[in-house]
UniProtKB/TrEMBL annotation:
<dbReference type="InterPro" id="IPR000515">
    <property type="entry name" value="MetI-like"/>
</dbReference>
<comment type="similarity">
    <text>Belongs to the binding-protein-dependent transport system permease family.</text>
</comment>
<keyword id="KW-0812">Transmembrane</keyword>
<dbReference type="Pfam" id="PF19300">
    <property type="entry name" value="BPD_transp_1_N"/>
</dbReference>
<feature type="transmembrane region" description="Helical">
    <location>
        <begin position="21"/>
        <end position="42"/>
    </location>
</feature>
<dbReference type="InterPro" id="IPR035906">
    <property type="entry name" value="MetI-like_sf"/>
</dbReference>
<keyword id="KW-1003">Cell membrane</keyword>
<dbReference type="InterPro" id="IPR045621">
    <property type="entry name" value="BPD_transp_1_N"/>
</dbReference>
<dbReference type="Pfam" id="PF00528">
    <property type="entry name" value="BPD_transp_1"/>
</dbReference>
<feature type="transmembrane region" description="Helical">
    <location>
        <begin position="211"/>
        <end position="230"/>
    </location>
</feature>
<keyword id="KW-1133">Transmembrane helix</keyword>
<feature type="domain" description="ABC transmembrane type-1">
    <location>
        <begin position="107"/>
        <end position="334"/>
    </location>
</feature>
<feature type="transmembrane region" description="Helical">
    <location>
        <begin position="147"/>
        <end position="169"/>
    </location>
</feature>
<feature type="transmembrane region" description="Helical">
    <location>
        <begin position="315"/>
        <end position="337"/>
    </location>
</feature>
<keyword id="KW-0472">Membrane</keyword>
<keyword id="KW-0813">Transport</keyword>
<dbReference type="GO" id="GO:0071916">
    <property type="term" value="F:dipeptide transmembrane transporter activity"/>
</dbReference>
Length: 346
């Protein structure tokens, strides 16, 4: 009997895994197809980006053949897919490096910015949303609504500039633009690519404090956006859960309000909240272009902006593929976590 139950569980998980992998494969294929045709329909000649506007016709034709643009579209797409799966995203015209090397260099900066911003959003947004739901219609709820309205309506570029003016220029509490001060540039050996972690690994606490002082303000700017979104969704989920029969029954049994809210209602609200946190994290990963520009943060968003302005399409499409792949991975991870947290979804 036990052996049969284990086999049934294994078949169920295998069926679930095959379905998830099929969905991921179809999504990746669609992402590749879209980025390929974007490169073909935009009014930018990739050959001219390589050889220049003053190249002779024979040079232009030779470069076009070398890039494979003389082949039918289906062959070009097959070659493109093959290169992507072998890790070849082309070479950046702007930096003369391979796009993979450029992304490997700039992506950790965006990763640490978005991760800390999401962490701030969770630590502040979830308790704020819970309080707003518990005290619905009273002053904690009003405070949460004002904070949410502030986070949604204030332009990021204005918030970043005001933060630099107040906390850096006036008070001197944080570091200025960039990831590190001039005295600490290129002093930390890149191990993970994330400066605060690399400085801690090396035991250079002075460099750690400097990197942290540069990181906290742009992360807080992104964190305000995350707080607004997460607190609003937490409030909505908790209001729904607090109206359920099991909450009423728990209160009738004499359980403390803290246990009713955080042990029972929050446990059920956490399942959809995992998806909300994942969506917020993905938006910060791909939507931090303005923040990185204002703070001169050498991340993926700034890299893509400069590449687009210089018609460096290999870099733009390579970065788009990486962001799309991260979206797929984070979304898949949130689905798995949701099933682990709530057995009813398995």
């Amino acid at each position: 009997m036990r052996r049969r139950s284990w086999s049934e569980t294994a078949r169920r998980w295998a069926k679930l895994a095959s379905r998830e992998l099929s969905t991921v494969a179809i999504t990746i294929f669609g992402l590749l197809l879209i980025t390929f045709f974007i490169a073909r329909v935009i009014p930018i000649d990739p050959v001219l980006a390589v050889v220049g506007d003053n190249a002779r016709p024979e040079t232009y034709d030779a470069a076009r053949i070398e890039l494979g643009l003389d082949k039918p579209l289906w062959q070009q797409f097959a070659v493109y897919v093959g290169k992507v799966f072998t890790g070849d995203l082309g070479r950046s015209v702007l930096t003369s490096n391979t796009v993979v090397d450029d992304i490997r260099r700039v992506f950790p900066a965006t990763l640490e910015l978005a991760t800390l911003g999401t962490l701030i959003g969770c630590l502040l947004g979830i308790p704020l949303g819970v309080l707003a739901a518990v005290y619905q219609g009273r002053w904690p709820d009003q405070v949460a609504r004002v904070i949410g309205l502030f986070g949604y309506s204030i332009p990021v570029f204005w918030l970043g500039l005001m933060g630099l003016l107040l906390f850096y220029a006036k008070l001197g509490w944080v570091g200025g633009p960039g990831r590190a001060g001039v005295a600490f540039q290129d002093l930390i050996t890149p191990i993970t690519g994330i400066l605060v972690i690399d400085a801690a690994i090396e035991g250079d606490w002075e460099a750690f404090r400097d990197a942290w002082s540069h990181l906290i303000l742009p992360s807080a700017v992104l964190g305000i956006l995350s707080v607004a979104y997460i607190s609003r969704m937490t409030r909505s989920f908790m209001i729904t859960e607090l109206q359920q029969q099991y909450v009423i029954a728990a209160r009738v049994k004499g359980l403390s309000e803290f246990r009713v809210v955080w042990r029972h209602a929050m446990h059920n609200a956490f399942v959809p909240l995992v998806t909300v946190i994942a969506v917020s994290y993905m938006h910060l990963l791909e939507g931090s272009v303005l923040t990185e520009t204002i703070f001169a943060w050498p991340g993926l968003g700034r890299y893509l902006t400069h590449s687009l302005l210089n018609a460096d399409m290999n870099a733009v499409l390579g970065g788009t593929l990486v962001i799309g792949a991260v979206f797929i991975g984070v979304n898949l991870l949130s689905d798995i976590l949701g099933r682990l947290v709530d057995p009813r979804t398995r």
